[in-house]
Structure formats: C-alpha cells, structure tokens
Amino acid sequence: MNPLNRAKLASELFTRFEGNPILTAGNWPYPINSVFNPGAIRTNGEILLLNRVEDLRGFSHLTVARSKDGLTDWQIDPEPTMQADQISNEERWGLEDPRIVWLEEQKQYAITYVSFGAGGPVVSLAITRNFKTFARLGGLLPPEDKDACLFPRRFNGRFALIHRPIVRGEAHIWISMSPDLKHWGDHRVLLSTRYAHWDGARIGLGCQPIEIDEGWLLIYHGVRHTTASQIYRTGIALLDKEEPWRVLRRGEEWILGPSADYERIGDVSDVTFVTGGVIMPNDKLYLYYGAADDKVAVAIADLDKVKEYIMMCPKVDS
Ligand code: BMA
User: Fold this and answer.
1) Looking at the predicted structure, is the pLDDT value of residue 148 above 80?
2) Which residue's alpha carbon is nearest to atom 10 within ligand 1?
C-alpha cells in the first residue's frame, strides 16, 4: 500500500456539513456559555444528541436536542435534561462529555459521562429508557478518569468499558471488564499514545464503539502539544469483534482535525472532539463533535470508505 494513497483517503474520508456548526449557545432556549461534546444515538427514527452545556457559572449539565435528519431543525429541551447533583461529592462541579449506547439485553440506554467531583473527574453511569428520567449507578472507577463508553453487549458474560485513566501522568486508552456494571477488573491498556505523532501527548475515546463486519471501530482523539497550545484531532483503530481488548489495526493519520474557523476559534482553540457516532440508513457515518469547546458540528463519511481505509491501515500485534 502506497502510504500517500492511504493518507489521501484519510484526508478525504469526512466532509463537514455545510450548515456547521449545528448547535451554538445562540440557539439555546435558556442562557448558556457554550454547547459541545454531545453523545449521539439514533432512536425512534430521529437523531438524539445529549449535549454538554456549560452554564454561566462554568459548570456543565446535559441537555437533549432532537432532529429528524440529524442535521437541521433541532428541537432542544426547554430546560436542562440532566442536572448535576451538586450535593453529592461525585457531581459537585458538573456533568461532562456523555457517550450513549443501547444495551439490548437490558432494553435501556447506558450513558457514561464525566462527573467533575471533589476527588477529580470520574466516569459515572446512568441508565435511561426515555431521556427524561435517569437512574444513576454512580462512579465506576477511581479518579482521574474520563472518555468512557460501554460496549452494547457482553463478551463471555462480561461487560466491557473503554476509559481513559491518568496513570503515572500518562494518558492511554484502557479497557476494563465487569460481570455486573459495578465491580471492575482485568484492566488493560488498549491503545497507547505514540511518541512524536499527532497523538503523542494524550489519547482518549471519541464516540461509542461502532460495530462493523470487520470488528469494532474505535474512534479516538489524540493531542499534540505545540509551543502555542495543543491540538485535538481524531483517529481510528479497529478492535476484534469478540475480544475487543485486542487491537487489529490502527490508522497512522488523523481523519479529522481543526481546520474550519469554528474549530480553530472558540473557548478552546484548535479542538475537534468527537463524542457521538451514528450510522444512518443510507450507510453514512455521522460523527458529532465539539468544535473549539463551544459549539457542536457534524462530519459525514461513507461507511464503506471508512472500512476500506481501516483495512489499509497497519496491523497491530496485541
Ligand atoms: C479534554 C476534555 C474535553 C475538552 C477537551 C478540549 O480534556 O476536558 O471536555 O473538550 O479537553 O479542551
């Protein structure tokens, strides 16, 4: 494989929706500072985004927006959908960066989000059927932990969680297993930062894992430190379908990075932060992301092209 052909495919995989950004503070039905990093799911024939919304104190909560085509005419809940429980130590300073999966066995949605609590950020789990009432199952693993999502089904009887603890100051992506969503073990590093690459400083899960015939697409963010700031881009790897703790392939190139004005300029410049992914009936993959930490945008790819690209990427021994 000529690496230049692969890089060309990587750079052309995603097209930004011309109506980007799709959600901004200006659209909001109540006063906010910013809206970004949404979990996304297709449900009842529409796209539901569970957005991270930062209020005018700087604390985040989660609010639902719905659209028939996933691009336009967003119906936003008139009030916060899920507020932090500020009495608790766990959620004291807000709720951030949700990811959503449908648990077929439980017939419920599982939302993993970051609770910004007294001990630092932790990954918390909430369960819902309707995105109106939420059962909170609490923090899953000790702080500092972020960027987490469950897989939609069990593997050999156990649930699997992708997450991103900080260990010895290093920020790699980990996977942990649980028989009951409460007790977690078999913690393993799934994907590591790559020295000197675009994802050399920190990495973390992007959207929920996406199942394809070849395995699970792991879409993740990578950070590069520069003399000016840091750049958040998006890359892709492929996990084994039945043993998702095994990485099969990993792209060398990023597939989405800040280039549009709305990604380069905002509360935090040069950030594309994918948190939601949806396969549409026409086999397009919609990735929803926070742009510069203050708006929501969407980038669209042909799922076939994404598959073609990942199968061209180097095999990984794991
Ligand atoms: C990460 C998270 C995200 C944020 C990103 C870029 O550490 O806190 O919520 O979008 O930084 O600022």
Assistant:
1) yes
2) 293
Contact 59, 32 (CB under 8 A): no
| Mutation choice for ligand 1 from 293, 294, 295, 296, CB with most ligand atoms inside 8 A | 293
Instruction: Give the pLDDT band of residue 76 (cuts 50, 70, 90).
Output: very high
Q: Is 198 in the pocket of ligand 1 (CB under 6 A)?
A: no
pLDDT band of residue 2 (cuts 50, 70, 90) is confident
Question: What's the rounded Cα separation, in Å, for the pair 140 and 60?
Answer: 20
pTM of the predicted structure, to 2 decimals: 0.98
- Cα-to-centroid distance, 270 and ligand 1 (Å): 11
Q: Which of 37, 116, 263, 272 to mutate to test the pocket of ligand 1 (most atoms within 8 A of CB)?
A: 37
Q: Does the beta carbon of 96 sit less than 6 angstroms from any atom of ligand 1?
A: yes
C-alpha–C-alpha distance, residues 51 and 35, integer Å: 6
- Listed by start position, the domains of the chain span 3-312
Task: Choose among 204, 214, 227, 19: nearest CA to 121.
Answer: 204
55-83: average pLDDT? 98
**Would you state the structure tokens that stand for residue 103, as one six-digit string?**
């648990």
pLDDT tens profile 84-120: 998 898 999 999 999 999 999 999 999 999 999 989 9
Beta carbon of 161 within 6 Å of any ligand 1 atom: no
- The CA 296 to ligand 1 mean position distance, Å, reads 14
Query: Helices 303-312 and 3-12: crossing angle, nearest 10°?
Result: 150
Is the Cα torsion angle 46, 16, 205, 115 positive or negative in sign?
negative
Query: What is the dotted CATH code of the domain comprising 3-312?
Result: 2.115.10.20
Q: Whose CA is nearest to atom 4 of ligand 1?
A: 293
Q: Is the CB of 316 under 6 A from ligand 1?
A: no
> Shortest CA distance to 194 belongs to which of 288, 14, 316, 37?
316
Token pair, residue 244, equals 């998702």
pLDDT of residue 3: 87
